[in-house]
Amino acid sequence: MRKTIFLSVLVIVSVSLIFLFVWIYKTKFIKNDLQNPFPHPLLKDLSIQITALSAKQTEARIKLCVENVLPVSLTFDSLHYRIFIDNLEVVKNGSYIKSIHVGARANGCIYLPMTVYNEQLISVLNKHKSIHMDSAEYLFQLTLFADIPILKQKTFEIKKELPVIYMPEIAIKHMKIDSLNFKKGTVELFVELKNPNTISFKFDHVAYSFSVEGNEWVKGDIPQIIDLRSKSDTILDVPLRLAIGEIIKTFFRNLKNENSSSYQFHLSFQIESENKMIEGTKVTLINSGTFKELKKAARDMKSD
User: Fold this and answer.
1) Range of 154's domain?
2) Which residues in 230-291 belong to E strands, given as ranges?
């Protein structure tokens, strides 16, 4: 009987002490985090890697590492984040709804997806081009949520100066018709690729396709690594080998009549760079126009 009473009193006292600690913590310390003696998780590392670039959008992933300085493990239910580039909010309601477990006195890392539609960045990019600035201020606001009485949520805010990454640009400068008859034909496109960035890079896994009025006519690849220095351009020699009779006839007819039929030239590649922000980035570029413009490119080739 005495043992039961003792255990009951012990439980009541323990629970009371826990509630007293929580009350003191919330009323005294949480108002002024600078004076808060309770150790909080720390933001150990934050980095960003661009995974894909296209005319429509930029895709990236953010690596976030949290350090748990407590002697017990922590589990966060979810994370919300907002991202600003030069005060322009590019990610408003980002969320990571999976549980994040961080062991006692250990680090835990997660990767957050980020998709920015390029029309959002036009003002930022134009501003930096006009004043020749090659970097921008990135602001990350991150909030971790946990089902712990003394740590319901933790907010981090971090600023980083990171490079401004511009889309490479392509243009068909010249066209050379090597052979063209009603059985087969070879057309060479001389494609100018510009790098407007201050970062040099190489690229490989180069693939291309040529379509007319939305129908793909030919595709191929360039089996070599190409070096593209910062603020420079290079010319790619792209062979279009046309092998179907009807395609040859249509191509020839469109050129002869300066037809307004539209074409699209797609070029994709993967970046190799010492800069971790763009290492492995997959790039998709599109050049479009009409056969009238292609014929002008062919005339320019002859005059050169």
Assistant:
1) 39-163
2) 232-242, 262-272, 282-290
* Gap between the Cα atoms of 27 and 64, Å rounded: 31
Name the residue among 184, 156, 150, 160 with its Cα closest to residue 24: 150
pTM: 0.77
Mean pLDDT along residues 239-257: 69
Residue 139 token pair: 């602001």
76 closest CA partner among 157, 168, 18, 143? 143
pLDDT greater than 70 at residue 168: yes
Task: State the CATH number of the domain containing residue 215.
Answer: 2.60.40.1820
In this model, does residue 33 exceed pLDDT 70?
no
Nearest to 99 by CA among 110, 91, 83, 88: 110
Residues 43, 145: Cα–Cα separation, whole Å: 14
Tokens of 177: 């018709």
Enumerate the β-bridge partners of residue 163: 135
Sheet holding 78-85, edge to edge: 88-96, 78-85, 135-145, 153-163
Q: What is the mean pLDDT of residues 167-192?
A: 80
Q: Which of 122, 142, 163 is the last residue in one of the domains?
A: 163
Residues 145 and 195 in one domain: no
Residues counted in the chain: 304
Neighbour-count burial of 106, counting CB atoms closer than 10 A to its CB (0-12 exposed, 13-18 middle, 19+ buried): middle
Top pLDDT among 284 and 250 is at: 284
The residue written with tokens 């670039």 in the block is: 53
Per the model's pLDDT, the better-predicted residue between 45 and 300 turns out to be 45
The greatest distance separating any two alpha carbons of the chain, rounded to the nearest whole angstrom, comes to 109
Q: Of the residues 133, 163, 193, which one is the last residue of a structural domain?
A: 163
Q: State whether 177 and 283 are in the same domain.
A: yes
Within a domain: 15:
no
Examine residue 245 and state whether it is found in any structural domain, yes or no: yes
